Amino acid sequence: xxxxxxxxxxxxxxxxTKRVAETIVEGINEADGxxxxxxxxxxxxxxxxxxxxxxxIGSPNHFGGPTRGIxxxxxxxxxxxxxxxxxxxxxxxxxxxxxKAANKMEKQISSKIQKIKHPILSLSIKVQGIKxxxxxxxxYKCKEFGKQIAAHIKEGF
Length: 157
Ligand SMILES: Cc1cc2nc3c(=O)[nH]c(=O)nc-3n(C[C@H](O)[C@H](O)[C@H](O)COP(=O)(O)O)c2cc1C
Hints:
35% of the residues lie in helices and 25% in strands. The chain is an alpha/beta fold and 157 residues long. A five-stranded parallel beta sheet has the order 2-1-3-4-5, sandwiched between helices. Strand 1, helix 1 and strand 2 form a beta-alpha-beta unit. The longest helix has 18 residues. The radius of gyration is 14 Å and the shape is globular. It starts with a strand and ends with a helix. The mean pLDDT is 96. The structure holds flavin mononucleotide.
């Protein structure tokens, strides 16, 4: 089986979403045959995105949705040829906004790309204040999510 390529793109103001992204990567790395890259939004090269089998996008919840930067990034993805790719989304949130930003990202990508591989997985991680830290018991979910993603991608190819 060929090596499957995954990219994790995230934005993070205070480092919590970065930590979530890194822990997801740890989980993915436990699987054989999956090659994962992690890149901060401001360093991402749009032209290389179509080379990946799976695209994971993470954002802090800002005002009930993903950051402006992440929204702009997803808009740009809509102009690439990404039919048949696997997508997953993750967010960090503070209050009662569980999965709100992740769901909005999912809706946005679904409106832009016709043939996404389903299901689209998502993860929402609670932080204890605007600057964090990540709430107790949340981090283990990130690693499990990474493992789940790897298994899911391998199954789909
Ligand atoms: C400008 C701003 C707006 C925010 N709005 C919300 C919000 O509407 N709902 C929520 O649950 N958290 C909100 N937060 C809290 C963020 O979700 C929290 O800062 C974030 O998860 C921390 O992640 P980071 O360390 O990766 O930046 C907001 C934070 C900022 C800075």
